[in-house]
Every structure is written in structure tokens, then in C-alpha cells.
């Protein structure tokens, strides 16, 4: 075969077609020369869906099985007698007066009144009372006891004279009881006789400041 370009090199004649080679589909490749092929087994679709459903159910059961948070503890206040919470000052026997309306419980006695610490002259027929020196002195402002803020204050006193039967009355503070403990009260005889018999001399009473 001659070249179309006379100035170029002459192409060699093409080798004749070799009919001895089999067609491409019939050729056998050398398997040793091929790279190895790794097949990853696939999960069947039905099994995969079943697995997802089971995983979802297990997650739901886990959420349902979670324990409920513990309930917050409740705290309840305890009412104490007013004189138990009195603040001490000056010395161990000095306590501030109880809060208005707080219920007190102490001994009730009687005495013969006259000129009291509040500067008022009283008689046994009046509805008066002397409070403990502990409470009276704690409320004192200045050196003059006549100006004590407790002078003239009203107290509501109650005594259980019999089961289910209470006797109550209102009294006015006019004096200071030197022999009384913090919750004790010392009444005029007329007041004491309304609460108990004179022969009893000392009885348990409950009382509170009138607001």
C-alpha cells in the first residue's frame, strides 16, 4: 500500500487478518491475572424492615421503662409556742415580747394589786393582769417603767374549766410579775375567780395578745 503523502515515510503493509483467533466472547481470560472480587452479602429487604421495627419497639419500651423522677419532698412548718421563739437580750432572763396573736400557755395565779409598774393604781375588782418580768423588761424603752409599750395592752385569756367547757375573758396589762416565768400571768382576784376557784390558787391557762 502506498502512502497518500509522498513526502512522508511509507507505511508498512498491514498484516493479513488472522482468522485463527476466536471471536471475543469465546476468548478465555486468565483468571490468575484478574484482581480478587469481594462480595458483601446484602440483608434481605424484609429482614431489614423487621429489624428496624424491632429496634423501634425496643426504643419505645426503653422510654416507657424509664423511672419517673422522684417527687420533691414537702416541708411542713411546726407551730411552736410564742415564748419558745423569744429572742434573748441583755442577759439570760431577758426575752423579747411574743408576737401579737401567738398563743401562749402558762400558769395563772392571782395577787393583791395596787400601784403597778405601769404607774396605775388598780383594785382586785378590775380585770387586770401582771405579765412576767422577763417579757415586761424586754419591752422596756428608757428607764421609766410607766412608759413600757406593754402597759395598757390587752390579753385574751382562756381556761378549760371542764372537758369541753372553756372560760375566756379579756384583761389589761398594768403591772410586772417578778415571780412569774415567761408564759405565766398574775391576775386580780376577780379575774381568777372567773377562771377557777380561789382555793386552787394556780391553774393552767392559754392566752394571746389582742391584735
Structure in words:
The protein is built from 3 helices and 8 strands. A hairpin with a 2-residue loop joins β5 and β6. The protein is an alpha+beta fold and 211 residues long. It has a domain at 100-209: Barwin-like endoglucanases. It is flat and about 75 Å long. Strands 3-7-4-6-5-8 form a 6-stranded mixed barrel. Helix content is 17%, strand content 24%. The model is unreliable at 75-97 (pLDDT under 50).
Question: Can you summarize this structure?
Answer:
The chain contains three helices and eight strands; from the N terminus they run H-E-E-E-E-H-E-E-E-H-E.
Summary keywords:
211 residues; 24% strand; alpha+beta; 3 helices; flat; Barwin-like endoglucanases; 6-stranded mixed beta barrel; 8 strands
Radius of gyration, in Å, reads: 54 Å
Sheet-strand content, in percent, reads 15-25%
Query: Which secondary-structure class do the elements indicate?
Result: alpha+beta
Instruction: Strand order, main sheet: write it out.
Output: 3-7-4-6-5-8
Instruction: Let me know the number of strands.
Output: 8
Give the CATH class of the domain at 100-209: Mainly Beta
Low-confidence stretches: 75-97
Q: What characteristic shape results from the CA principal axes?
A: flat
Biased composition (Basic and acidic residues): 11-20, 57-66
InterPro entries: Expansin_CellWall, RlpA-like_sf
Region (Disordered): 1-29, 49-71
Protein name: Plant expansin-like protein
Amino acid at each position: 500500500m502506498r502512502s497518500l503523502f509522498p513526502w512522508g515515510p511509507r507505511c508498512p503493509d498491514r498484516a493479513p487478518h488472522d482468522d485463527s483467533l476466536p471471536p471475543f466472547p469465546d476468548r478465555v481470560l486468565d483468571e490468575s491475572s484478574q484482581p480478587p472480587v469481594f462480595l458483601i452479602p446484602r440483608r434481605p429487604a424484609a429482614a431489614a424492615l423487621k429489624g428496624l421495627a424491632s429496634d423501634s419497639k425496643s426504643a419505645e419500651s426503653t422510654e416507657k421503662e424509664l423511672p419517673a423522677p422522684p417527687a420533691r419532698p414537702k416541708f411542713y412548718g411546726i407551730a411552736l409556742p410564742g415564748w419558745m421563739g423569744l429572742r434573748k437580750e441583755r442577759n439570760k432572763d431577758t426575752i423579747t415580747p411574743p408576737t401579737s396573736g401567738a398563743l401562749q400557755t402558762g400558769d395563772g395565779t392571782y395577787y393583791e394589786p395596787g400601784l403597778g409598774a405601769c404607774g396605775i393604781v388598780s383594785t382586785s375588782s378590775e380585770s387586770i393582769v401582771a405579765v412576767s418580768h422577763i417579757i415586761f423588761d424586754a419591752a422596756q424603752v428608757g428607764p421609766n417603767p410607766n412608759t413600757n409599750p406593754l402597759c395598757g395592752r390587752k390579753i385574751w385569756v382562756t381556761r378549760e374549766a371542764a372537758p369541753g367547757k372553756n372560760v375566756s375573758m379579756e384583761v389589761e396589762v398594768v403591772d410586772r410579775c417578778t415571780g412569774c416565768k415567761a408564759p405565766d400571768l398574775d391576775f386580780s382576784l376577780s379575774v381568777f375567780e372567773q377562771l377557777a376557784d380561789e382555793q386552787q390558787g394556780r391553774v393552767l391557762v392559754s392566752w394571746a395578745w389582742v391584735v
